[in-house]
Target: SCP domain-containing protein
Amino acid sequence: MGLCKVSFYVLCVLGLVIVSDIAYGQNSPADIVKAHNAARSQVGVPNLVWDERVAAFAQNYANQRKDCRLIHSGGGGRYGENIAMSTGDMSGIDAVKLWVDEKPNYDYYSNSCINGGMCLHYTQAVWKNTLRVGCGKVRCASGGTFIGCNYDPPGNYIGQRPY
Model:
């Protein structure tokens, strides 16, 4: 009888772990931090860590963007910010990939975006003085996804290089 209870308990715990893994599906803080840090390691800047305070700010703003409009929050004056949206589901890793894929558009020597491309999402993601990240995600009324990540301290200071 005792063995049955233990086995049942173990199955319940395993079930919860599997369900929570599926629910996060490339949106876990660890996955998002890992995606950022892969890009950061390429340019020799310190790793980011997940910050619950920053994540709460990001999630609060994401909850206001159920319209899926790409409007920046302004970071509350404290944070840098990257935002992304899709017409369907998008994972946190997908959003980070969109931002770091701007790397070819950044020219370190002129410290500017080149070829008419965007690069400021990339530079924020790899900003050398940024140490903490937190992200929020919401499914939009249209069925799309809005994801925002905030960075502490912020980056993208005019005239300064990201690394």
